[in-house]
Amino acid sequence: MCGVFGIHGHDEASNIAYLGMHALQHRGQESAGLVACRDGKLRQRVAMGLVSDAFDRATLANLPGETAIGHIRYSTAGSSELRNAQPFLFEYAGGSLSIAHNGNLVNADELRAELEAQGSIFQTSSDTEVIVHLMARARAQKGSADVVGALIEALKRVRGAYSLVLLTHDEKMIGVRDPNGFRPLCIGRLKDAFVLSSETCSFDLIEAEFIREVEPGEIVVVDKSGMTSHKALPAQEPGSGETFCVFEHVYFARPDSLVNGKSVYRAREKMGHHLAREAPVEGDVVIPVPDSGVPAAVGYSRESGIPFEMGLIRSHYVGRTFIEPQDSIRHFGVRLKLSPVRSLVDGKRVIVVDDSLVRGTTSRKIVKMLRSAGAREVHLRISAPPTTNPCFYGINTPTRSELVAASHTVDEIARYVTCDTLAYLSHEGLMASVGGTGYCSACFTGNYPVPLGSSDLVQLRRARV
Ligand code: AMP
Q1: Which atom of ligand 1 is nearest to the CA of 293?
Q2: Ligand 1 contact via 248 beta carbon (within 6 Å)
Q3: Which among 53, 103, 107, 256 is least surrounded, fewest beta carbons within 10 Å?
Q4: Of 205, 240, 275, which closes a domain?
């Protein structure tokens, strides 16, 4: 759960990157950082918090140059502290190098132990740093003099999910997607500049033109002579093919983005259509849990013919509840964030649509809230299948033991959240909504397309005992 951004060949590179990162803020709110290059020198600023808190005119003015990369972070590997804020900046024999990573490597612990045993000293607790150490080694041992050669050697050893943006002291901007293409990464043009971003919504803000997505397993290199493409990364698991994260469509990406070639809004709306067909119920009003449930509720309402109303109002002055690492804030957050519109729900049979149910705490509070605002019946509809397995490829899900659907039936969950009826979208309905195959849906099925690392397997086994 992170966002990456890069721009090459624009005289206001860090200002544009700041805007682009702002449009990716939903992908993480823990830290924000920028690295810009001028005259062979890479300058960095990273800070905890939101993009708008991390930068001001003065800090941006200290990041001159025509090329910049940025990162916003929510931790999935490594603790929440400034030393893990990206883009990282390293000096190695090949010069200086900066890297920003979205995704999660599953064999980082093993590689780290191996590298440390050989004398590497790590500066952070992040999985991303492994890539840089492997690059330095590839350069030293295999004589891969150019940065792309060293990167390819390094990436052949890592497993998992990675969309990367790198910047070198000689102003090469590099974009990479892992061979499975778990996380998005798009290429755009802003006049003569090339832009890379996790999502197309940042192109819309900076008025860049969307060109295409970086393909799974592709490395694109932008320098003064333009963009070149390299396809040198072998499959991570024989036969696993492309496995774009379906949860990007369910929850994570912004609805105005195109990811994996499809409109996120349309995909969510279709999830609502399918859900209405699969799990109809008599009701007076369909209301979304804003913001993430809105497109699916629109779809549910259209398909069922039951009127759509904004029966819950979201405060825009608190972040996403789930995204705060401390449990206490998350619990408090639901009430801070949402409040019911009494006149829309009082005396009504209310159908509430949300995109996912993870621990069940949010839904339980929402049901209670709606009943105390007078709702006669509350029917909960979830526009994704039950979340039964944790993600190890970069979405922040809790451990399996905290996932309510991992150990409870739909009826038990309905009793826990105190709704009248509960239904989830089927896996088939989800796949029909996003258009077929080529997705990772491990959080709903437990089928992990890239073999997990030893520490992830320990966590899974522990939860299953
Ligand atoms: P819970 O209370 O744990 O059941 O959380 C469910 C709510 O969290 C739903 O409203 C989702 O929109 C939201 N959600 C689901 N997955 C995530 C995630 N990985 N990060 C942040 N929020 C999430």
Answers
A1: 12
A2: no
A3: 53
A4: 240
